[in-house]
Amino acid sequence: MSTSPTKQSIPNLPPPHLAPSLLNPPSPRTHRNLRRLQSAHTLGQSNSQPSLISQQHKQVLQRNHSPANSTSAPHHSRGRSNSDATNMSIPNPGSAGRRPVHSKKPIAADALSLDRLVREGPPDGDVIGALESVRLKILDQGIKSDTDGMSSLRIYVWLILLNAPVLETDAYLALIHRGASPAYSKIRNDTFRTLTTDPLFRRRVSEASLIRLLNAVAWKLHDAKEERAESLSKSTNKLTHTANAHGSPELQNSTPTMKSRARALTLTTEGSDVGTSEPGTYVQGMNVLAAPFLYAARSEAEAFVAFHRFITVECPGYVRGAMDGVHKGLALVDKVLAIVDPKLSLYLIGKGMNAELYAFPSVLTLCACTPPLPEVLRLWDFLFAYGAHLNILCVVAQLVILRTSILSSPSPTKILRSFPPLQAETIKAVALSLIKKIPDDVYAEIVAHAK
Predict the structure, then answer these.
(1) Which of 110-115's residues contact partners 24+ apart within 8 Å by CB, and which partners?
(2) Where are the alpha helices (DSSP H) in 297-351?
(3) Which of 181, 352, 353, 432 has the fewest beta carbons closer than 10 A?
C-alpha cells in the first residue's frame, strides 16, 4: 500500500496562544520553505472499484508514455494517498514515492487555488505534486467555510484525500431498499443520542438520514463478511478435492473429518472479526464517526462512500467487535504523554487516571465527540491530509494545552470528564510540534495502531 507523508516530512507550525513554558514552538516557515521538506507521497489504489485518480493515470499514460509531458488532465479528479498506517516502519526519505529533494522546479499546482485544483484536476497530470500542494494548502490556509463550518468544497477534498472510489447513487439506494440490516436494532439504539447537544448538527442532519447511512454501511460490511466466508469455504473444498484427486490414502480416509473441520473454521471466521482486516458490521461509536461526514456532504451517497472508505481502509481496527485499534490508541496516548511531558504523565498516573478513563471517546471518534462541530471539521481536514493516526497526537495535544489546569487541580477527573471546546488550529500546531519528540519506533506504532 502506498504511503502518506512520513513523520520527517510533516511540517511544523508555531502553536498560537500558548504559554512559552508549555513547549518550545518551532519558528514560522513560509510556504516556500515548507515545500523544501518534500512529502513522501505515493498514490493508493482502491481494492475494488478504481478511483478517478487511478483512471486519470491510465488516461494520461495512454495519451503519452511520459506523464510529465501531458498537457491536460481530466476534470473532477478524485483520489488520495492512503494512510501509511499499514507500514510498520517509517519509509526512507529517499523512497521512490518521494519528490526529488534536489529538484527546484516549481509545482504548477501551487499557483492554483484549492477550489481550482479540485475542479480542474492536477495541471500537467502531476497528481503527486497536486496532492502535495493540496496538503500544504490545507495546513496553511485551511478549507474556506462559513461560521457553521459549511463548505461546498470540503466533501470533495475529503473524497480525494481518502481516494474514495466512484459510487453511483443507485448503488446506495439499492442498499437502502434492502431494508433493515442485521445490525439495525443496535443502530436505532444509538442514533437518537448522536451529538444531541450540537444544534448545528441537529438542524442539518436528521436521525432518519443517519439511520439510513449506518444501515447501508452495515449491509455493505455484512456482504463483505459473507464473501470472505464463502471464499474461505471454496478454498478449503478445493484443497480437499485436489488432495483426494492425487490419491492420498490418509486424506481420503479422513475426508469426513476434514470437511467437518473446514465447516467449523468457516463458521467461526464468519461470526468473528478477531484477527481479520475486515471491520464489524456495527459497533457503538460508529454513529458519532459518521456524523461529520453527513454534515459535510452534499448528499447521503457522498457521505456513504467517504465513511465506508474511512472505516474499512483508515481505521478498521476501531470498528471491529473488540475495538482493538481503539485500545491500542489509548495505550499510545499514555505512552506519548510520558515521552513529551513526563511530569504531567506521572501526575495523572498518580491520580489513577490512564487514557482508558478519559480519552476513549476522543480516540474512537477522532475528537468528533467534542464540540463545536465546525472545529471538528477543520481538525478532520488536517487528519485526512496527513493521516488519521495523528489523532493520537491531537488527543495528547489537548492534554498539553490543559497542563496548567490539570497540575493545579487536586481532582483532574472533573477537568477531563469532558474536554473543553475544540480549537483546531491550536491543537494542530501543538500536535505538529510534538512529532519530532517521538522516537521512530513509537511513531511507527501510532501509524499502525488503527489497522
Answers:
(1) 110/31, 110/35, 114/138, 114/141, 114/143, 114/144, 114/153, 114/157, 115/153
(2) 300-309, 324-340, 342-350
(3) 352
Residue 379 and residue 432: Cα distance in Å, rounded? Answer: 12
Q: Answer whether the bond into residue 67 is a cis peptide, omega within 30°.
A: no
Residue 301 has pLDDT above 50, yes or no: yes
**Reduced 3-state DSSP string for 142-186:** CCCCCCCCCCCCHHHHHHHHCCCCCCCHHHHHHHHHCCCCCCHHH
User: Which residues, including other chains, have CB under 8 Å from residue 304's CB and lie 6 or more apart?
Assistant: 167, 172, 213, 216, 217
**CB of 292 within 8 A of CB of 163?**
no
pLDDT computed for residue 2 by the predictor: 42
Per residue in 176-219, pLDDT (tens digit) is 999 999 999 999 999 999 999 899 999 999 999 999 999 999 99
Those residues whose C-beta lies under 8 Å from the C-beta of residue 36, and which sit 6 or more positions away, are 101
Note whether 394 and 337 are within 8 A (CB).
no
Tell me if 414 sits within 8 A of 5, measured CB to CB: no
What residue has cell string 477543520?
Answer: 378
Q: Name residues whose C-beta falls within 8 Å of residue 311's C-beta, 6 or more positions apart in sequence.
A: 217, 279, 286, 289, 318, 319
At 242 the pLDDT is 53
Mean pLDDT rounded to a whole number for the chain: 77
User: Would you say 423 and 382 are in contact if contact means Cβ atoms under 8 Å apart?
Assistant: no
The length of the chain, given as a count of residues? 451
CA–CA dist 100, 97 (Å, integer): 9
397-431 exposure pattern, b = at least 16 Cβ within 10 A, e = fewer: bbbbbbbeebeeeeebeebbeebeebbbbbbbbbb
**3-state DSSP call for residue 98?**
strand
- The x, y and z cell numbers of residue 341, run together, are 511531558
| Grid cell in block for residue 225 | 463478511
Query: pLDDT digit string (tens) for 52-95?
Result: 455 555 554 555 444 444 433 334 443 443 443 333 333 333 33
